[in-house]
Every structure is written in C-alpha cells, then in structure tokens.
Amino acid sequence: MLRFIVVLACLFLVSCATDHTYMKDLFSPGLQKAMETSKKGNPMQGAVLMKDEAERGNGIAQSMMARVYGNLAENDGPEKGNDLVEAYKWIELSCNKGVLYDKMPTDQADDIAYRDQLAKKMTSEQIAAAKKLAAEWQPKGP
User: Which of 48, 69, 61 is nearest to 21 (CA)?
Assistant: First the structure.
C-alpha cells in the first residue's frame, strides 16, 4: 500500500510540474543542451543555443541571456550601450514571464533585482528602448 501511495505522489508531482511553465522551461531539451554544450568547453555555441531557447520563450533562458549581455556590457566595449539594452530586454521578458507563469519566487526576486541593477547603469532612453523591444517581442517557432 505504501508503494502505491508513493507512486501516486510521484505521478502527482510530475503532473504538477508539467503544468507549470517554469518546470517546462527548466527541463526543456533546448536549455539542457545549451548548458551541456557550455560545460563541455564550448561556451560560444552554448550561448547561441541559449539564445535560441530564449527566443522561443523559455523564461530561464531569457534570464540567463540577460546576464550574458550584462556581462558583455561590463567589458566597456563599443557595444556596451547595446548590450545593456539587450540585457534589460531579456530580463524584462523573464520578469514578465515570472509574474504570469508561476516562476519560483526566489528566481523572480533575483530577476527583479538584476533588472533594477541594470537600470542604474542605463540612460532613460536606453531603458525606454529596452522596454519597447520587450513589449514588441514575440516568441519564435519551435
């Protein structure tokens, strides 16, 4: 009887997890492949795969892409302003997805804090441009 209850509990947890976009995003094959590729010593290809996943609407990948662009902006290169705008766009999308799709509260708070941190480095014009990009953004197909 105990075994039956444990199996039912596991099935319940799996069914709950598959109903939440956060869990689907976390376990998506595209996100897993991107992370594995990076770990295997090919961070550039991993970033390309991560961006593909973010463009499909994966909120976790969007949050990660925000941090990639934010780190690029830290290098003070000629694209710093553009990188900050891209970082803000991706983190804005991730924050919006968290509100709508039951994202884990700690991840949601981290994303909001990161968005606020980026905003301190940006002009009001850059923030407006990033918000416009986020508002106009549409997920790409599978």
Answer: 61
